[in-house]
Amino acid sequence: MATIKLKKPGPGVAPASPQRRAPVRGIGAGAKGARPTLAQAQARRAEREVGHPPPLRRPADDRPPQDAVRRDERAATPARPARPATRRPPERAPRHAPQPRNGDDAGRTDHAPGSLRLSKRMSELGLASRREADEWIAKGYVRVDDHVVSELGSRVLPDQRITIDARAKAQQAQRVTVLVNKPVGYVSGQAEDGYEPAMVLVTPPNQWRDDRSGVRFLREHLKSLVPAGRLDIDSVGLLVLTQDGRIAKQLIGEDSEIEKEYLVRVATGDGAPLPDASLALLRHGLELDGEALRPAHVEWVNDDQLRFVLTQGKKRQIRRMCAAVGLQVLGLKRVRIGQVMLGDLPPGQWRYLRMDERFA
């Protein structure tokens, strides 16, 4: 390995002075280029700001306000005149302005006297529900006097002829109606208070083996299947679930007069027979929620059971009617809706409404 030897300078020879580098920018050798401390920088900044306050910041839209002047010049500077207001062009109505969706187009006078919305007229004739009618109109499935009408909100006169395309009838024929013998402990509609809706009973294992409708169960039959009428959680018997808006309107519409028959087991508080005057009140003369009830057919079936036939369905109507005359309801069963009977359908099971069955 090679070795490097440094030769020392001889006597009397001054060592070479190291080469001086240029000072780094901002750092000089003298006091003039010395970097100030933090305290010195803050003091200098405060001195500069005395008598020279920072300018006001402008708003985000970069337009100075009329009084945007320095505070020490406010008195000497005249106020800037306000800009003249510019006129905005009038707003144009949308090209397709939405029409009012109320059933009778209240307030409109540009239609023929006595005319009705087409969807409402179809509902009155029992051709379809109003929602279903609107769908068919938009698809061009509806004709008025042999002319296709595809504009929502169209109006017709009562004497005009309305026909439906075969495609719409085919869709309607695929919608099903289910009859359930609801047991105690199930609610009619949406689940509530931890209780399941009666629709959970509509499964292949629960279909009545004597169902003679000829309809094969499909998953699509559960879609939009809603109750057409109620049975409270403590009541049993015939409950109708349907996909058909016509049947729902027929059973629970405001002008529905479909009969509903119930067998009700009752007891009086003191065990005494029910007076004839109280039985007469059950038939007619009671009111609920400030509204007089329609006449009802009420008769004894045996010593502790009454038969009710109603044409309306207020919430818990029979139980409240019985309570008004001092009767306690021990059991309530619906056995008929219109011309459709519960029959031998077992509790907790269901069947399809047959093609030859009609509620009215």
Helices and strands, with pairings:
Elements: H1 38-49, E1 116-117, H2 118-124, H3 130-139, E2 142-144, E3 147-148, E4 155-156, E5 162-164, H4 166-173, E6 177-182, E7 226-227, E8 236-242, H5 245-252, E9 260-268, H6 276-283, E10 287-288, E11 291-292, E12 297-302, E13 305-310, H7 317-324, E14 327-337, E15 340-341, E16 350-352
Parallel strand pairs: 8-14
Antiparallel strand pairs: 1-4, 2-3, 2-5, 6-8, 6-16, 7-8, 9-13, 9-14, 10-11, 12-13, 14-15
Helix pairs in contact: 2-3
Characterization of the model:
With 360 residues, the protein is of the alpha+beta class. Among the domains are: 116-173, RNA-binding S4 domain (Structural Genomics Hypothetical 15.5 Kd Protein In mrcA-pckA Intergenic Region, Chain A, Roll); 174-253 and 343-360, 2-Layer Sandwich (Alpha-Beta Plaits), CATH 3.30.70.580; 259-337, Alpha-L RNA-binding motif (Alpha-Beta Plaits, 2-Layer Sandwich), CATH 3.30.70. The protein has 7 helices and 16 strands. It has helices spanning 38-49, 118-124, 130-139, 166-173, 245-252, 276-283, 317-324; strands at residues 116-117, 142-144, 147-148, 155-156, 162-164, 177-182, 226-227, 236-242, 260-268, 287-288, 291-292, 297-302, 305-310, 327-337, 340-341, 350-352. Strands 6, 7, 8, 9, 12, 13, 14, 15 and 16 form a 9-stranded mixed beta sheet that branches. A 3-stranded antiparallel beta sheet has the order 3-2-5. A two-stranded antiparallel ribbon has the order 1-4. The termini are far apart. The model is unreliable at 26-31, 67-75 and 93-107 (pLDDT under 50).
